[in-house]
Design a protein that fits this description.
The structure is a single chain. With 118 residues, the protein is mostly beta strands. It has one domain: Metal Binding Protein, Guanine Nucleotide Exchange Factor, Chain A, CATH 2.170.150.70. The chain contains one helix and ten strands. The strands form three sheets. It has a five-stranded antiparallel sheet, with no helix packed on it.
C-alpha cells in the first residue's frame, strides 16, 4: 500500500491537518499515554504533513524523555497529531489514525509497539 493523502482533525474541528501516510504501517504503542488515549499512529516526514486549521492553538504535552511533542486541542482535548524525530533524526509527524476523516478502522491493522520498555 502506497502513501495516500488524508485529512482529519480533532473532535471539534479546531485543529485540522492533511498528511501523506501509509496506513499499512500503523502502530499501537503500549506506553503510558498511547495506552490511555487508545492511539493508532501513522508516521510521515514533516514535509508530508500540513496543519490546515488551528496553527498555534494546540496545547503541547511532553513526558518521559520529552522526544514526542504531543499536540492536543485545548477545546475538546483530542490528540490528532504529534511531532518528533524518526530514528535517523529526520523530523516527522505522528498522525492519530482515529482522527482521519471517514476512516474505516476495520481496514487498519496496526502492529503492536513496545513503547513501555523504552
Amino acid at each position: 500500500m502506497a502513501n495516500q493523502q488524508y485529512s482529519g482533525g480533532c473532535h471539534c474541528g479546531n485543529l485540522r491537518f492533511v498528511a501523506n501516510i501509509e496506513l499499512s504501517k500503523t502502530i499501537t504503542c503500549n506506553c503510558s499515554i498511547c495506552k490511555k488515549r487508545g492511539l493508532i499512529l501513522a508516521f510521515t516526514p514533516i514535509a508530508d504533513f500540513s496543519q490546515t486549521a488551528g496553527e498555534g492553538k494546540a496545547r503541547e504535552y511532553l513526558f518521559n524523555k520529552h522526544v514526542i511533542r504531543h499536540q492536543f486541542c485545548p477545546n475538546c482535548g483530542v490528540e490528532a497529531f504529534a511531532f518528533g524525530q524518526m530514528p535517523d533524526g529526520a523530523k516527522m509527524a505522528a498522525v492519530n489514525v482515529r482522527c482521519i476523516d471517514d476512516i474505516d478502522l476495520d481496514t487498519v491493522h496496526p502492529t503492536p509497539f513496545d513503547g513501555a520498555s523504552r
